[in-house]
Write a structure and sequence with these properties.
mainly alpha, 2 helices, about 0% strand
């Protein structure tokens, strides 16, 4: 059962329009957007803390 599942994934990854590669690309894009969204307020916090030290 697992062997057939692995074979299907190998066939999909080797095809031109792979669903697995497309899914990994979507997940990577989503993670990048989340990190960017969370990183901007964090940078404002760090800047604020740095200014308070001066």
């Amino acid at each position: 059962m697992v062997q057939s599942w692995i074979e299907e994934i190998k066939k999909d990854v080797n095809s031109d329009d792979s669903k697995v590669i497309h899914a990994f690309g979507e997940v990577t894009d989503m993670i990048f957007k989340v990190l960017l969204f969370l990183g901007i307020p964090f940078m404002f916090y760090v800047l604020n803390q740095f200014i308070q030290l001066i």
